[in-house]
Design a protein that fits this description.
The complex is a heterodimer. Helix content of chain A is about 35%, strand content about 20%. Chain A has helices spanning about 15-25, 55-65, 115-135, 155-160, 165-184, and strands spanning about 5-10, 30-35, 45, 50-55, 70-75, 80, 90, 100. In chain A, α1 crosses α3 (about 115-135). Chain A is globular and about 45 Å long. The N and C termini of chain B lie far apart (about 60 Å). Chain B contains 20 helices and 18 strands. In chain B, strands 2-1-3-4-5 form a 5-stranded parallel sheet, sandwiched between helices. In chain B, strands 9-12-15-8-16 form a 5-stranded parallel sheet. In chain B, β3 (about 50-55), α3 and β4 (about 80) form a beta-alpha-beta unit. The chains are: A alpha/beta, B alpha/beta. The interface of A and B includes residues 55, 83, 88 and 140 of A. The complex binds adenosine-5'-triphosphate, magnesium ion and zinc ion (2 copies). The site of one zinc ion has 8 residues of chain A, from α5. The site of magnesium ion has 3 residues of chain B, from α7.
């Protein structure tokens, strides 16, 4: 039996994690396990930028991955970046096990706007599906409604659906079928 | 549609992996390397849609890589990236032709936009090349390329005469495409299932021409060890193309005239009277009217041949066909040589548009072939042209007081002969004229080989 691990890192509301799992369940047919972890990933901190390198966190998570893990999704409140990008909403291993998404820039507050829980949850679900899509080998999609569309700002996150377009869905399905057969 | 290919050059491993991971998620095919020299080789050897090059690298710096890439593939966009931005380097990079200059770390929105824009632009450039080639095909009739009014007139004539059986006389300077016109007429005619037989009257020695045309019986002359069918017989039901008709002797003119009148002939040394059903097309680059006046060509034969008359205009009178023809030959010789060249530089185009092309299309074809063979970049450049084409008028004038076109021609021919050790066949090829023409020029200018 394989599980979908959803792991928090830093300060993340447990209810938000539960709602996230409900949102993901529709697309990913696995049982979910929530793991809470309050500590911050200091090993990934870049003092000059006051940000955390997403890749370093992914590498660390890979070392700790449980044997019964289908995919591991990490949700954090720290601001993520990469050596070449000023920030990222999230990052994933293409065709791999681990993905990470940051709440930081999905919050209205980041842009000095009044907070909005419903919006935050919606954005989080979309970005998590997006990064998990990469874990299943999906590339960015040109359809701006598709969840695999590359969003660099919230307007485009809010504009897309919580679902794959038909083409991406087909790719995703065949991939899951292939992987489950490969294991038998 | 295949993935777009991006070449990333950065000396820092972490930058390479981070940038290539991100680009891969965006669906690009990415190769990230640390060595700028290797990058230059890869640009030479492979097809890329975009290069992203770091400014500060230990072995060779990004600006130098940019310069080299621009020389090899002027159309390949290069983004210069750096962690140490200064206005100076940005200005230099843009001057050297960088498509953009971006500071690390990038704002994701900005870099996505820049890359998408450049890749889309590349796609359009490629699409353009494809369309231009498709367009050239549209302006191709049989093997004849051209869209000038004069060429379209010729094509109309071809279509009209193809359906008839009338004898056609094609006039035009050397290399204008007379043989292609003759072949097109044959291909469009009801005779196209039967042979098209060409007889290069100028190239066959006079003594052999009669036997070559009419055939001979065994024992007709020394060396005639068996019966031999001539070109006229071989062309039965098809088309006989008499090339360089102005070069045949008066004796053969009489024989031909008789054949044209009677449509009957005997093989050399034969008794049997043979008949054939052939269509005759003759071609000449000489002025037959002048030759009639001077008694070198029979007037009655001329009238027999000149039933329908097609004049193929020299290239300098239809310059608008030059780009189409140049593209056509570029593609042809890329296929021949296996080279990948997508275009013709503006400067080269300017030179060939302005040149007079005394050897017409054959000379243009040889010129493009030469350029393709020596080309080192993705476009053929002015530097790839034979020297005589790019010698500026001023440089030519400097040489001596003589300015006439004839003097230049004489010098150029002599020079070509010398560089090819007086090998006439080779020199004629290089000059883009046929051997007979070259012999005539050698005679005309009294050129001699020094010992
Ligand atoms: N309109 C054209 N489109 C494409 N190729 C052409 C065209 N005209 C001529 N060529 C090419 O140019 C070369 C010379 O053509 P061709 O042999 O028909 O000329 P010509 O008039 O018979 O010359 P010459 O009088 O020297 O025998 C050939 O390789 C031919 O394929
Ligand atoms: Mg010819
Ligand atoms: Zn993505
Ligand atoms: Zn999609």
């Amino acid at each position: 039996m394989k599980y979908f691990y959803v792991k928090s890192m830093g300060t993340v509301d447990i209810h938000l994690l539960q709602e996230l799992c409900e949102g993901l369940q529709a697309l990913f047919p696995y049982p979910f396990r929530i793991v809470q972890n309050m500590s911050y990933p200091l090993y990934a901190f870049e003092p000059r930028r006051s940000q955390y390198y997403a890749k370093k966190i992914i590498e660390q998570l890979l070392c700790e991955i449980p044997g019964d893990c289908e995919k591991m999704l990490c949700v954090t409140d720290v601001d993520l970046c990469t050596p070449v990008l000023t920030f990222v909403f999230g990052e994933a291993q293409l065709d791999g096990k681990v993905a990470i998404v940051s709440l930081n820039r999905l919050r209205q507050e980041f842009y000095a706007l009044p907070s909005d829980c419903a919006m935050l949850k919606d954005r989080l679900v979309k970005e998590c599906i997006h990064e998990l899509g990469h874990c299943y080998g999906l590339y960015h999609c040109h359809d701006s409604q598709c969840v695999m569309f590359l969003s660099n700002n919230l307007i485009s996150v809010d504009n897309k659906q919580r679902d794959f377009c038909d083409q991406c869905k087909e790719f995703f399905r065949t991939k899951i079928i292939k992987e489950t057969h490969g294991q038998e | 549609m295949g993935k777009n290919r991006i070449l990333v050059v950065d000396d820092e491993e972490i930058m390479r992996s981070s940038l290539s991971d991100w680009l891969r998620e965006d669906g690009y095919d990415v190769l990230a390397i640390e060595d700028g020299y290797k990058a230059i080789d890869l640009v030479k050897e492979e097809e890329w849609d975009l290069a992203v090059v770091d400014l500060k690298m230990p072995k060779i710096d990004g600006l130098e890589v940019l310069k080299q890439i621009n020389k090899i593939k002027p159309k390949l966009p290069v983004i210069i990236i750096t962690a140490y931005a200064t206005v100076d380097t940005a200005v230099v990079a843009m001057k050297e032709g960088a498509a953009d200059y971006i500071v690390k770390p990038f704002n994701p929105e900005e870099i996505s936009f820049v890359i998408a824009k450049l890749v889309e632009h590349q796609r359009l450039v490629k699409e353009n090349i494809r369309l231009r080639r498709a367009l050239a095909k549209r302006f191709q009739f049989q093997d004849l390329v051209g869209k000038s009014a004069k060429m379209l007139d010729v094509i109309e004539m071809i279509k009209t005469v193809a359906t008839t059986k009338s004898t056609v006389l094609i006039k035009g300077e050397s290399g204008t495409g007379k043989e292609l016109v003759a072949r097109a007429i044959h291909e469009l005619s009801p005779r196209n299932k039967h042979p098209f037989i060409a007889a290069a009257c100028g190239a066959i020695p006079e003594t052999l021409l009669e036997a070559e045309l009419f055939g001979y019986e065994k024992g007709a002359f020394t060396g005639a060890t068996s019966q031999h069918r001539g070109r006229i017989e071989l062309a039965d039901k098809g088309t006989l193309f008499l090339d360089e008709i102005g070069d045949i002797s008066l004796k053969t003119q009489v024989d031909l005239l008789r054949f044209l009148q009677e449509r009957e002939f005997r093989r050399v040394g034969g008794k049997e009277i043979l008949t054939v059903d052939i269509r005759i097309i003759a071609a000449t680059n000489k002025n037959l009217e002048d030759m009639i006046a001077s008694g070198e060509f029979r007037e009655d034969l001329y009238y027999r041949l000149n039933v329908i008359n097609i004049v193929v205009p020299p290239l300098r009178e239809r310059r608008e066909d030059i780009p189409l023809l140049a593209d056509h030959f570029l593609e042809k010789y890329c296929l021949d040589t296996g080279k990948k060249i997508d275009g013709i530089s503006e400067q080269l185009m300017k030179v060939i548009m302005e040149y007079d092309w005394p050897g017409n299309i054959r000379q243009l074809e040889n010129t493009i072939e030469h350029a393709v063979v020596v080309a080192k970049e993705s476009e053929i450049q002015k530097e790839d042209l034979p020297e005589y084409l790019t010698l500026s008028k001023a440089e030519v004038d400097k040489g001596e007081a003589s300015h006439s076109l004839e003097d230049l021609e004489k010098k150029h021919i002599l020079h070509t002969l010398q560089t090819n050790r007086w090998n006439v066949k080779k020199s004629a090829q290089v000059l883009g004229i046929n051997r007979v023409t070259l012999y005539n020029k050698i005679k005309k200018y009294a050129l001699k080989q020094d010992k």
